[in-house]
Amino acid sequence: MAELTVSKGEGNAPALNEREVVAYLKAHPDFLNRHPDLLESIELRHRAGSAVSLIEKQVDMLRAKNQRLEDRLQRLMDAARENERRSAHVQRLARTLIRAPSLAAVAAGLARCMREDFGIEEVFVGIAAAQFKRRDIEGIHPIEPDGRLARAFDDFFRTRLIECGPIAPDKARLLFPKAARPVLSAAIVPLEKDKSLGMLALGSGDAQRFQPRQGKFFLELTADLVAAAVRARL
User: Domain 102-231: which CATH class?
Assistant: First the structure.
């Protein structure tokens, strides 16, 4: 068994070299197992000024570590439950759109699922006027290539990229003229990006509901379902 030796300072008093002590303890992690009495005799100064033994400090550290692990596990469980809930809602949306007998039923079912399952108050579906010219279906509108909507969202129609975040009041009124309360944030998603079928817009009175850096998977999946339902009924 290796022995811990210390040098003698002036007057033969031990002159401990802290680095050597630390190195020794690291090299011999069983040192305190061989000297358990030190666990209670070594004191650590608490920030509040009180002293605690090393073993008490270890217990406190273990408690804190366990709490962190429990908190992490709880977050993982919460995320799993949220993913399961969202998956069930997406399945309901898919069934609703597949079973819809008409474009009007598609629009109504989409709006209902968004409101009841996802807390999204406003829905707008715009279809390129070359493929859809009717104006009598609530929630589905033709988009003229040189119309107000096309001009207002020129960047979107040029890039065909999802836009999320705060929305200007004039654009919100253009998309959601019958909104019960002002729409403060929105997500605008292309329908059939490669074929330019149109756009899906989701609006909320909560300014934080849609954020520029939020995940896009749910929006893309919803747009794919809507595009397939609309295309099948054009």
Answer: alpha beta
